[in-house]
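Kindly review both lines to help learners:
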Amino acid sequence: MTAKSFTITVDGQALEVEAGTTLLEACRTIGSDQPTLCYLETLTPVNVCRVCVVEVEGSRTLVPSCSRAAEEGMVVHTDSDRVRHSRKVVFEFLASSVDLSLVSDDTRSWMSRYGCQPDRFGPPSPPVTDRDKRHAGHHHPPSPAVAETVRQPVKVDNHLYVRDYSKCILCYKCVSACGDDAQNTFAISVAGRGFDARISTEFDTGLTDSACVFCGNCVGVCPTGALMFRSEHELRQAEMWEESRQTVTRTVCSYCGVGCNLDLHVQDNRIVKVTSPADHSVTHGSLCIKGRFGYEYVQELGDLASTPIDEVLRRARAKA
């Protein structure tokens, strides 16, 4: 054991960790991966989803494992009745008010593991036409007969990505990626309070009138599909999005000499979206507008615009 390391106990197992290690990192070293929604290795923890909470002996409250640093002699319980109940209720509240249809398989397995029953809060309330105009304390209280939801129409106001805030869990990942963790544009933040809190631009201006530079880094970190490539959204609407038929090819962006890595997602000979590996030393998952969205020239040069996908996208853009 070095001078900068010490021992903690996780679920009865003694574990040597270095100073500054979070409880989540410590748990992962022994294969105990806690549920997370708002956490991402490339972003500063914001502690908002609360599904990663663990029980620390001597602590009055459950603590977020993603940001709580380990301390010498800590005794941590990751699967106690208290922890399981807390995680179950958090997942149920989210699922009762937010559309979680596109969350990861890991999230689905966690919800099943904790026996979540969001339907016990009642059927969902009808969608709100313009939720952005609501102000805390200035609307009628919700009916107890239904579960209040954040459902609203999808915002389709540009050709690059769409915003479906019916799926937004306010994990803050997009805000962090737009801020000093990555892009430093600060185009978006959380507006409103309580249940009326939502992601918004300054003074709720349109994206094209805001500080947004359309880098799409917010899309890259969204865990629920609230932010999505417009091409993916349109193909899903046409029931043509099939990840099982897609191939992913890693390449280097050709627009400049920085060396950003790109993962090209291809279906039926068409690039349907572009991502970047989070563990790459240059990008850490971030890209600029050209790297993430500037791939249409590939289709034109390759003369591939002949698949059903192309027709779906052409018609969708013609309606816009």
